[in-house]
Sequence to fold (251 residues):
Amino acid sequence: MEKLLADAFGQDGEYLTHEQKHRLLSRLLGRMAHEIRNPLSSLHVHVQLLEEDLARLQPATPAGTVSRLEIIHGELHRLDNIVKHFLRLARPTDLDPAPVDIGRLAGHVCELLRPEADAQSTELSLEVRPPIPVLLADGSQIVQALVNLVINALQAVEQRGRVEVLVSATPTQDEVFIEVRDTGPGIAPDRLSAVFEPYYTTKEQGSGLGLWITQQILSAHRGALRAANRPEGGAAFTLRLPAARKDPASG
Ligand SMILES: Nc1ncnc2c1ncn2[C@@H]1O[C@H](COP(=O)(O)OP(=O)(O)O)[C@@H](O)[C@H]1O
Ligand SMILES: [Mg+2]
Fold:
């Protein structure tokens, strides 16, 4: 841990590129999450044992005590979720790039979330506008990024709306765009950049980490993520990824 910290902030730190610093910080956060996980699971077990002790000592546990224990359980669960998010964070630095058919991948994400959409009577549609160049990307991470965006869109719509996923590319075939649009309430104009901050959430059960992680994944792929409001209402998140170079020698 100290070595990682020294690497990240030590005297050599100023010579590190932005990318290297990002890598180090992600590894550091992943490592911290990993180390927090063990005492956290031990806490889970001991709270449970405490509950059993209490039940034995005092069969009718007072309501106040029960609710305090419930709060502890709830908060431990929340910590657990945060730790899991950070553990995943450690991953985007270890990209496993391979040629990716982004249209197919977007189709896969839509099928994955179709039951969610159906359950809230929301139309989930995919449009792919060919030609789409092949991407060199980490497919599972791009899936995670897209899942985050589509889930947010579904949550914003709530009931009986529309979520559209649109895959397109620049005419020069240099870049691919994946847009996730919804018919939800949109985002307050002064919050358009805040939504990417870690822990920013307007949801009771939200972690506020989804968009942040999505942005980390995109930046690890030298891509970008942008939020906007649609003129007709609702939000649109656009994910931009560079296409695979056709001739890597000429660079
Ligand atoms: N499609 C969307 N429409 C409206 N607001 C959104 C949308 N996607 C994200 N947001 C806003 O951005 C916040 C952060 O999103 P996210 O990082 O995924 O965390 P979470 O979903 O846990 O709240 C959300 O709580 C919400 O306020
Ligand atoms: Mg989210």
